[in-house]
Amino acid sequence: AAKSRGRNRMERFNEELHARVLRRLRIESDLRIALREAQLHVHYQPQVSLVTGRVVGVEALARWQHPELGAMSPAEFIPIAEECRLVDELGWQVLRSACHQLAAWRVLEPTLSMTVNLSPRQLDNPAFVTELQHLLAQTGTEPTALCLELTESALMRRNSDVVEILTQVRQLGVYVAMDDFGTEHSSLSRLRELPVEVLKIDRAFIDGLPDETGDLAIVSSILSLAYAMGKHVIAEGVETVEQALALCDMGCPVAQGYLFARPLAAGEIPALLGQPLWQAPSGWKARLQPA
Ligand code: C2E
Ligand code: MG
Ligand code: MG
Ligand code: MG
């Protein structure tokens, strides 16, 4: 009996593994088609000034509605795209859409900025900076209105010439943000040598506000560090009024999260521009925003 139980468990394990491998292969081949046929689209999540309550920027997030599997999470398909070298094409499609939208929306909100997620694999393309420059020119994008987000772990990689490439990106006028700040082994000396202007505080630390003293301490330290280094800050994943008020208390200038708006289809953005999505408590003043 024990033997057959063991065999059953083995069979179940094999079946699960088999199913997972099949799903992975299917996603890979369907993603190839989706990219060729431009089936992916982009949603945009507002970033809100905690001072004025207005939308100051939007983050572009890739979306894929699979014909049979339904809405796929980028957390699932981006890593697959990275493994099978599709992320370069995917990244350009997202950047192109984002730049077109940005140009259109800046007519309505002249200071609006756009942040776009970048895979470290995209920087392996030796033509990255040249192609970025072309895209900016083609779409009439103001370079200083665009910000490229790389995760902390991507920026800590030392194998490719990240500092050199990002320095060239900065020379075009485009900003660079460190996404998910605080979740990986950030080396502060590395932060000093990188041309990064924006730190995005990971949702993991916002979750525990305002009660967890550990999270309060971490968020407040990141804010102090950012001000001292002259960097801009965006808090990610703000879901409750209490969290937003705690961020106000600590002088955080900009936040993003379901409390203000979820990632939205492009057509829904214009209605949100120019009107407050958040009301700061009366008498509250943000600490000076760094240049
Ligand atoms: P990220 O860049 O850190 O993006 C923030 C994620 O948090 C998004 O998930 C967003 O929908 C979600 N989010 C925003 N506000 C809240 C909130 O208040 N509560 C909660 N629980 N979640 C919130 P999403 O869209 O599923 O994207 C997941 C990750 O996939 C992104 O994390 C980013 O790393 C990656 N990604 C998405 N689009 C692209 C892309 O075009 N290129 C690349 N390379 N990566 C992308
Ligand atoms: Mg991001
Ligand atoms: Mg993030
Ligand atoms: Mg993330």
From TrEMBL:
GO molecular function (one): cyclic-guanylate-specific phosphodiesterase activity
Domain of life of the native organism: Bacteria
Ranges where the EAL domain occurs: 24-277
Coiled coil stretches, renumbered: none
Protein name as it appears in the record: EAL domain-containing protein
Section of the entire sequence shown: 209 to 499 of 531
